[in-house]
Specification:
11 helices; mainly alpha
């Protein structure tokens, strides 16, 4: 009986199998790159908003605090989109006839909400709670980037599950004192700029359990102001009491005062310890803030309810 296929058919079959395998691998790599690309994650994209609101101008330039507009960030699962009334508080006095602010005036006059486009928008099946992250020592910039340097708001990170899990597996790398949550310029401790922390002995809210300062408690001249009339515990005039936030490291602009946490106040007689790296500080705060273990934080039920 004559052969149906000649001897070269075996080589052709093997080459076909290899080629098919390469196509499958290439397709998998392409799809993996696609689902990580900004086209899918929207990372770095600046959506067209009804009003070209500049965080750089309002935060760095004017020194507005995050929680002035996002009022529910510390006590709700959502940061909240500011109502028109928040804008009118200032813009009923300044820039009252600016064309770009016409949607604000129209919204105020008609009572219709401004149709802001949510930049950081998670899938409906993901449960994310702003309150727990803020009160457990995760700063705004850790997730949203340097918002104070963004003329137009964009998504700094991918917000994909692996990005969340990287933090949940090692939360100490991102923890900071709660008094520094809204400090966009916070860079963590270093050998040149250590952070001193002490336990307060208080029970209750996490923010009250630790006191951290960025100046050596043994050489802090501001302690003398504790007994000076007209000054608060931080050496600020009484009218400006709160936590002093760092200015922009390059321009020196944007220094603000936050009243969100009293924990940066130095406690007389407390035993402060210096921390020279983020790893050391993070391990200390992990214990004091009662952060769950990496295995518990990586459980599916944390985000998927």
């Amino acid at each position: 009986m004559a052969q149906v296929f000649d001897r070269n058919s075996n080589a052709l079959a093997r080459a076909s199998l290899v080629l098919t395998g390469l196509i499958v691998i290439a397709l998998g790599v392409a799809l993996n790159s696609l689902q990580r690309s900004p086209w899918v994650t929207r990372q770095g994209q600046r959506p067209d908003q009804p009003i070209p609101f500049s965080h750089k101008h309002h935060v760095e330039g004017l020194g507005l605090q995050c929680q002035y507009c996002h009022t529910s960030v510390e006590k709700s699962s959502y940061a909240g989109i500011p109502p028109t009334k928040t804008c009118i508080n200032c813009h009923s006095q300044i820039w009252t006839n600016a064309d770009m602010l016409q949607p604000v005036r129209t919204s105020w006059a008609t009572g219709a909400s401004i149709n802001w486009i949510r930049v950081h928008d998670l899938p409906d099946y993901v449960y994310f709670n702003h309150e727990i992250h803020v009160n457990k020592g995760i700063g705004c910039a850790s997730c949203h980037g340097r918002v104070d340097e963004m003329p137009l708001m964009y998504q700094e990170n991918t917000l994909q599950m692996e990005w969340c899990l990287n933090c949940h597996r090692n939360p100490a790398s991102n923890l900071r004192p709660t008094s520094e949550i809204y400090n966009m310029a916070w860079a963590g401790p270093s050998s040149e700029k250590p952070v001193w922390c002490a336990t307060t002995g208080k029970t209750g809210p996490t923010a009250q359990a630790v006191s951290c300062v960025t100046k050596d408690p043994t050489k802090n001249t501001e302690m003398a102001m504790l007994q000076t009339p007209g000054y608060d515990r931080q050496g600020l005039p009484a009218a400006q009491s709160g936590t002093r936030l760092e200015a922009h490291p390059n321009t020196g602009e944007g220094q603000t005062v936050s009243d969100v946490s009293p924990t940066s106040e130095m406690i007389p007689g407390a035993s402060y310890k210096a921390y020279y790296s983020q790893a050391e500080l993070g391990r200390f705060l992990t214990t004091q803030y009662h952060i769950r273990t990496a295995n518990e934080l990586s459980s599916c039920e944390v985000c998927h309810r």
